[in-house]
Specification:
Elements: H1 8-21, E1 30-31, H2 42-59, H3 66-72, E2 81-83, E3 89-91, H4 101-105, H5 112-115, H6 118-128
């Protein structure tokens, strides 16, 4: 079996959420080896988290905006985590750079589509304020430099 998913996409998604909402506190990331360790059932964990989260929101009688209720009512146990092949769980906020257990277990690599054409996209990034967010690259824009 070939795993076509790259970890860099997680950080692209996080940048989009940050750009749209100003925060990423309304989501959780879980990462396992391609064949999840025995006893680690990500779909079951996701369903449990989803149900508990929605029940918490429904029970929140405050006048807070819905977006704030989503963040406030996130289950305390629903945290970013990765699992080793032996089932050892490591709870840590996912980071694109820097040392971390999850980054060591699951190295982050870029993609050709993210790397291609940043020079041609530089003007658009400066205009939109994305100069400090190279992961966005305006979703998956790619271009080849033209020498004229």
């Amino acid at each position: 079996m070939i795993d076509i998913h790259t970890r860099i996409r997680t950080f692209t998604k996080l940048e989009r959420l940050k750009r749209a909402n100003g925060t990423t506190a309304n989501e959780v990331n879980w990462l396992t080896p391609r064949l999840a360790p025995t006893g680690v059932n990500i779909p079951q964990l996701a369903l449990r988290a989803h149900n508990e989260w929605l029940e918490n929101i429904a029970a929140d009688g405050s006048d807070l905006p819905y977006a704030e209720k989503v963040i406030r009512n996130k289950p305390s146990w629903a945290k970013d985590a990765c699992w080793e092949a032996n089932g050892t769980k490591h709870e840590e906020t996912f980071t694109l750079t820097g040392p971390s257990v999850c980054n060591t277990l699951f190295p982050i690599n870029s993609t050709v589509r993210l790397e291609a054409g940043p020079r041609r996209r530089a003007h658009a990034r400066r205009r939109s304020g994305d100069h400090d967010r190279p992961l966005l690259r305006h979703v998956l824009g790619a271009s080849l430099p033209l020498d004229r």
